[in-house]
Specification:
Strand order of the largest sheet: 1-8-5-4-2-3
Largest sheet: 6 strands, parallel
Shape: globular
CATH topology of the largest domain: Dehydroquinate synthase-like, alpha domain
Structural class: alpha/beta
Bound molecules: 5,6-dihydroxy-NADP, zinc ion
Pfam families: ADH_Fe_C, Fe-ADH
InterPro entries: ADH_Fe/GldA, ADH_Fe_C, BDH-like
CATH architecture of the largest domain: Up-down Bundle
GO molecular function, one term: methylglyoxal reductase (NADPH) (acetol producing) activity
Strand content: 5-15%
Number of strands: 8
Number of domains: 2
Protein name: Iron-containing alcohol dehydrogenase
Keywords: Oxidoreductase
Radius of gyration: 20 Å
Number of helices: 16
CATH class of the largest domain: Mainly Alpha
CATH superfamily of the largest domain: Dehydroquinate synthase-like - alpha domain
Length: 393
């Protein structure tokens, strides 16, 4: 078991109509001028944006708006946001949207608090000295950015998608109203459910001794997400289901479910990130398409862990052979993905058959051009990564 520091400083305001408190929450943080950052239009169409702006006005808080964040958010808009905030004297960043909008806000925050090109953080050339304060009104249960220490941005040229992690960017508050997720398209709900489970599974599949209490919580949350994810797809206005997955999404990625272990494996995420960087696919769908291939590739490093997953998540019987049982667990997970209409290979993901050149480019980018290996459950180099892309075809 590892020593650890658990740090989850985000104030969570959860429940119906919670966005009405957003003006007060910004004020509490000392905001004097707010950037309201949003995506491609869902927040406008639903009337949420108007309600958020009204809540700021009620507190006498001036604001400027910047929309247009796309899924897999772009560096070019981050630069635009930094310029706008400097010009307008903005001192608080409010994300109204999903992981993409929150991440774009966090990157703008880094740009405001550091006097160098913000991409140098994502390129791992510099470390941040701070981040302007960010708050979030979440509209999709998925990425967990509302409580995580992470932001993921895509550089427009070269389609490089990179993350940067530090506690500076943790949201000051997160407003979680499950009703805001009623309008999600079925596909986005399923992508979100997948991402939430994957954030837990990335932490669960590690090749060292873990804490029992952490394992038990992780298994319980995965089971709940399996159950309520289906329920939310069956009835998009099922408040309980929406609420359960929304809270699970935050807990999945705030550090709670890796306490006492290493920070996680994250190979599936790294392998997927190159796919969403290059092809613009939804992150959750990309994870579903890659996970089974990753799992089969690394199974032999510790089959007992996959067997435990099979017994405790899917109640599968023990045959006495952990490799057989582990494989059954992988198949059960893939069956679940199919049941929520998530892809389990790259063809189903819609990226078509990859050429060897594309596989090489994806793997090369994934190793940061030869500067790193990935994974903890089993350490993977470029040839391993290529093999997983090939298996996932
Ligand atoms: O842009 P709009 O019109 O709002 O539409 C969005 C978008 O098309 C739509 N949507 C969101 N809420 C909605 C809604 N549509 C109807 N009703 C609503 N209530 O859903 C689409 C996806 O939104 P996005 O923000 O991209 O989704 P998600 O939260 O899954 O974020 C994905 C991004 O987060 C990154 C991913 O790589 C990806 O770039 N991640 C960030 C992490 C972090 N910061 O900790 C961790 C994750 O592993 C992940 O990498
Ligand atoms: Zn993710």
């Amino acid at each position: 078991m590892n020593d650890f520091t658990y740090f989850a400083p985000t104030k969570v305001v959860f429940g119906k109509g919670a966005e009405g408190q957003v003006g007060k929450l910004c004020k509490e943080q000392g905001a004097t001028k707010v950037l309201v950052h949003f995506g491609g239009g869902s927040a406008k169409r639903s009337g949420l944006l108007d309600r958020v702006c009204a809540a700021l006005e009620e507190e006498g808080l001036p604001y400027v708006t910047l929309g247009g964040v796309v899924p897999n958010p772009r560096l070019s808009l981050v630069y635009e946001g930094i310029e706008l905030c400097r010009r307008e004297g903005v001192d608080f960043l409010l994300a109204v949207g999903g992981g993409s909008v929150i991440d774009s806000c966090k990157a703008i925050g880094y740009g405001l608090a550091n006097d160098f090109d913000v991409w140098e953080l994502f390129d791992k050339k510099r470390a941040a000295a701070g981040c302007a304060p960010v708050g979030a009104v979440l509209t999709i249960a998925a990425a967990g950015s509302e409580m995580s220490d992470s932001t993921v941005i895509t550089k427009d040229e070269g389609e490089l998608k990179r993350g940067y992690n530090s506690n500076y960017c943790r949201c000051k508050f997160a407003v979680l109203n499950p009703e805001l997720t009623y309008t999600l398209p079925e596909y986005q709900t399923a992508c979100g459910v997948t991402d939430i489970m994957m954030h837990i599974m990335e932490r669960y599949f590690v090749n060292v001794e873990t804490m029992t209490v952490t394992d038990t919580m992780a298994e319980a949350v995965i089971r709940d997400v399996l159950r309520y994810g289906k329920a939310a797809l069956e009835d998009p206005r099922d408040y309980r289901a929406r609420a359960e997955i929304m809270w699970a999404g935050s807990l999945a990625h705030n550090g709670l479910l890796c306490a006492g272990g290493p920070n996680g494996d994250w190979a599936s995420h790294q392998i997927e990130m190159e796919l969403s960087g290059m092809f613009g696919v939804a992150h959750g769908a990309g994870l579903a398409a890659i996970w089974g291939s990753w799992a089969r590739y690394v199974l032999d490093a510790k089959p007992q862990r996959f067997a435990q997953f099979a017994y405790r998540i899917f109640d599968l019987p023990q045959t006495g052979d952990p490799t057989v049982d582990g494989l059954r667990g992988i198949e059960a997970m893939e069956d679940y993905f199919r049941s929520i209409r998530m892809p389990v290979n790259l063809r189903e993901l819609g990226v078509g058959e990859l050429t060897e050149e594309q596989i090489d480019e994806l793997a090369e980018k994934c190793t940061y051009f030869g500067r790193r290996t990935i994974g903890q459950f089993k350490v993977l180099g470029k040839e391993d990564i290529k093999a997983i892309y090939r298996m996932a075809q």
